[in-house]
Amino acid sequence: MAASAHSGRANVSPGRWPMVAKASSALRLMIVILAVAGTTTGTAQTSITTYKYDASGHLQSQSLCTTQTCTAQGKTCGAITDGCGRPLECGACSVGACISNVCTLPDLVMVSISAPGTIYYNNAWMSDSLDILDTVTAGTLLSTPATTVDYYLSDEFTGQHLYSLGSRDVPSLNAGQSSTATTTVPLPFVHGIYRLTGHVNPSGVIAEETYSNNVKDDTLVISWPDYIMSTVSAASPAGVSYDTSQINQGGEIEFQYSVTAGYYNPDSPGTEAPPTTVAIYLVWDQTSILLASDDIPMFSIPHWWGGGATLTLPVGLTGHYSIQAIVDPANLVREYDETNNVFTGNQVTIYTPDLVMAAFSAPTKANSGTKITVSDTVTAGNGSPSPSYRVNYYLSSSPTVTTSGTYLGSRWVPGLAPGASSSASTTLQLPKVAAGNYYVGALADATQSIIESDKSNNARSTPISIK
């Protein structure tokens, strides 16, 4: 408690105040005497005793008031009262501003972060970049200087920054003002579940009221599609060759393929795979010959896509080849696994056939307009197989058989193995022509659709006398 001291009147008892004895009894006075212990500063507590006297100088009451320091009142700057009516100075702020007698710092708040445009059912794919949308707000009390927001892919559980994605500039903001922006950053070749983290004032250069609201996260599941080249096969079209793996030079080849769209996603699958292409090749040793490129539209994951076509082989291409298919050959789609995009299928042999008209016979005499029966034998020469084709029969005045003669009919020859032959007798209708000497001939592949090693042995003829 404070000692009794009366503004320098140490010899006066608090029980009576003689200097006011002569005052009118009707006049009531209150005289306050301060009793001070210690010093009156912004940090030290002070006790003040208040005495109340009547007009006659008699002590009516006394009370004790303890002053409140700046600290006790939660104040750090400016002038306030001490709780007992006296002014109290709490000093000036070394940083920040004095607001409501409290030294206040700026406050940057990372309000939100997300990734619009490349998030598809929580899956990012088909892009080497990520569009990040974020909002930063200045606290309601003070403006904030310019700073940056840094972006990271962080560990799903610990929040540890794993990949730095980039940053954006945040301009100076007035109190309560926000800055919202979309920033495109490169997306690393990773997959899995991450936190997409935004950190404003990451270096802490700006002194803030609190740093606890400078970071915001959003869950980002990165699930790359995975195209798997599942199958590919090639063959000669049905009915063309004795062996579907044998294809004549310049002939037709059929191919079929299938692609499976998988994914890597530890949480939930993606829903669609992006469009791509499948390239079909004939390969041998270090040689690759592009046959076709087939577009694949967007389709569901997990699912598969199949395709195929019949193509004409390039002229001059012969030998043993394997059929090969590559999905996304230009690597335009980022995938979880690029090693399963190639599938090598069966082997085909592209050969140059030789259609040999080995034998041909016909009657030596016939009447005009009647039917005759001819016989012929064709062979697959040159040590090669031969594809299926037709033998056409003609009547002409020349022993050289061409399509300029009068067409009499034809027969179908199936694909033959190397050295194999096909023999048949065919009944033909002679036209009504003038009596005379003619030739009946047989011509293999009259349409010249088959590339051969020798065309000179495709025909034979025999004379016939018509009456």
| Total number of helices | 0
CATH architecture of the largest domain: Sandwich
CATH-defined topology of the largest domain: Immunoglobulin-like
Based on Cα principal axes, name the global outline: rod-shaped
Widest beta sheet: strand line-up: 8-14-13-10-11
Helix content range of the residues, please? under 10%
Indicate the low-confidence ranges by residue numbers. 1-41, 117-126
Helix/strand-derived category reads: mainly beta
CATH class of the largest domain: Mainly Beta
Q: Multimeric state of these chains?
A: single chain
The main pleated sheet reads as: 5 strands, mixed
Number of domains: 3
Computed Rg: 52 Å
Count of strand segments: 32
End-to-end gap: 159 Å
Report on this model:
The strands form ten sheets. The chain has a five-stranded mixed sheet with strand order 8-14-13-10-11, with no helix packed on it. A five-stranded mixed sheet has the order 16-24-23-19-20, with no helix packed on it. Strands 26-32-31-28-29 form a five-stranded mixed sheet, with no helix packed on it. It has three domains: 108-222, Immunoglobulins (Immunoglobulin-like, Sandwich); 225-351, Immunoglobulin-like (Sandwich); 355-466, Immunoglobulins (Immunoglobulin-like, Sandwich). The radius of gyration is 52 Å and the shape is rod-shaped. It has no helices and 32 strands. The chain is 0% helix and 49% strand. It is mainly beta and 467 residues long.
Search tags:
467 residues; mainly beta; Immunoglobulin-like; 3 domains; five-stranded mixed beta sheet; disordered N terminus
